[in-house]
Amino acid sequence: MVQEIVSSTGKIQGFGSARDRSRWLALGVLCTGTLMIVLDATVVNVALPAIQNDLGFTQSSLAWVVNAYLIAFGGLLLLAGRIGDLTSRRGVFQIGLAVFTVASILCGVAQSQAMLVVARFVQGVGGALTSAVVLGMIVTMFPEPAERAKAIGVYSFVASAGGSIGLLAGGVLTQAVNWHWIFLINVPIGIATAVGAQRLLPRDPDGAAGRGVDVPGAVLITAALMLGVYTIVAPAAEYGWGAGRTQAMAAVAVVLLVGFVVRQATAASPLLPLRIFRSRNVVGANLIMALAVAGMFGMFFLGVLYLQRILGYDALGTGLAFLPTTVVMGALSLRYSERLITRFGARALLLPGLALIAAGLAWFARVPAEGTYLLDVLPSAILLGTGVGVAFPALATLAMSGATPSDAGLASGLVNTTTQIGAAVGLAVLATVSATRTGSLTAHGASTVAALTGGYRYAFGVSAALVLAAAVVAVTVMRADRGPAAAATADEADPSADPTQPVLCEVA
């Protein structure tokens, strides 16, 4: 995928050696696995009407085709990342691929509602195992800063653009064949990725295994995250945030989370060492990621509804409408993000990137009921693609910056958990905001089209506000890149750090 890299000194280095070729091919394997997982999260949305008609789901029960996956995926990411640190990241990735591929077969041949929902839950388990360790493997495979920036740029493009590619793929498969193939297409991809993983992924260094997993901590965090995600996607969405059962479940999730934190502060071998939160850049990057993804994910969901319900696009046309976002994002992430991060530092790119994302969302917040693609959709798509291509590789770099080599899987799982929680919360909040605004406009005599458009516009404005809040966090929490001097500081902060390993604390 990449033909040359730029060293930290600015000189061009070819990577014709077998080791270099193997590392970049291994990155391709990791990104293929990531793309398969990300595609599956959005490709299903396009096919939901066909699934409902074929299997007889009601409108409320249809949500569980998505919710079952989200609960397993969001609940297990952090645990899966830590298990990778303590056992084998390569092994966890391979097991996840196997589980996801088998579950995809079960989804594809499902002839009943129960079979499909259960298979989707198992898919979520496989997706969590596969996704949680990817960033951790990347930062250990590419210790040199310029190489790592390039590799993270490639990963960020795949992770970010996969959603819009999924819309296009879902439209093509659903219209050309049938909904079963949105799952069955994963089978050859999963098998090919598994073969590549076996041949190309490096084995984990000795010494990680044998420390054991903090079982009470694992139970607490998995229960807290699964219950938290369930509360967001089910009771909150169905009964509202003020409902008694929603608040009760949220309270239990918070109690479990507090219990987990207490356990980590006292456990001899904690699942989540609290030292990882000493880095302001790591904490800030994860918070920014949650806010930005909350705005972006809800926008894409509601943007699809605007294109289909208001402008009359079909599934394929909707996917094509978001294609410019993917193209611009890819050009920046794959070609320029490494150079920009190496030249200016990851933190310096955050504000421009977030500002462009907010501008794209603000443009979408003015869409009229009689909107046109060239005037009302395309400018927003280009702004969003540019902003994500600039900001998200920098965010991923900063989010991994506080991890030691032994904690890389944990930091990777934390980033993915933050992203997933942000997406779930953003979708729930923005869908509620949109529906409430639409209901209010309808009650005041607005037409159906005008009321729906007004609801979407209001939600797009809230999306822009979430991204602006992320920009405020970037200004107030993130520290400036400190350059080579950070190495000495990091060594002082962690006397046990291996001086032969890359320093990942508080640097871009």
Tell me the layout of helices and strands.
Elements: E1 5-6, E2 12-13, H1 18-55, H2 59-62, H3 64-86, H4 89-108, H5 113-132, H6 134-141, H7 145-176, H8 181-184, H9 186-200, H10 215-233, H11 235-239, H12 244-266, H13 280-310, H14 315-321, H15 323-344, H16 346-364, H17 373-399, H18 408-443, H19 448-476, H20 485-493
Antiparallel strand pairs: 1-2
Structure description:
By secondary structure, the chain is mainly alpha-helical. It has 2 domains: 12-203 and 271-482, Growth Hormone, Chain: A, CATH 1.20.1250.20; 214-270. 77% of the residues lie in helices and 1% in strands. The chain has 20 helices and 2 strands. It has a two-stranded antiparallel ribbon with strand order 1-2. Helix 6 crosses helix 18 and helix 16 (346-364) packs antiparallel against helix 17 (373-399). The longest helix is centred in the first third of the chain and has 38 residues, at 18-55. 53% of the residues are buried. Residues 1-15 and 482-508 have low confidence and may be disordered.
In short:
77% of the residues lie in helices and 1% in strands. The protein has 508 residues and is mainly α.
The first-level CATH class name of the largest domain? Mainly Alpha
State the low-pLDDT regions, or none. 1-15, 482-508
Helix content: over 70%
Biggest sheet, open or closed, and with what strands and sense?
2 strands, antiparallel
Q: How many angstroms does the end-to-end distance come to?
A: 23 Å
CATH superfamily of the largest domain, by name, is MFS general substrate transporter like domains
What percent of residues are in strands? under 5%
Give the spatial strand order of the biggest sheet. 1-2
Number of domains: 2
Number of strands: 2
Mean pLDDT: 81
Oligomeric status of the shown chains? Answer: single chain
CATH architecture of the largest domain: Up-down Bundle
Tally of contiguous helical segments: 20
Structural class by SSE content: mainly alpha
Coarse shape: globular
Rg calc: 22 Å
The run of helices and strands is EEHHHHHHHHHHHHHHHHHHHH
Q: CATH topology of the largest domain, which one? A: Growth Hormone, Chain: A
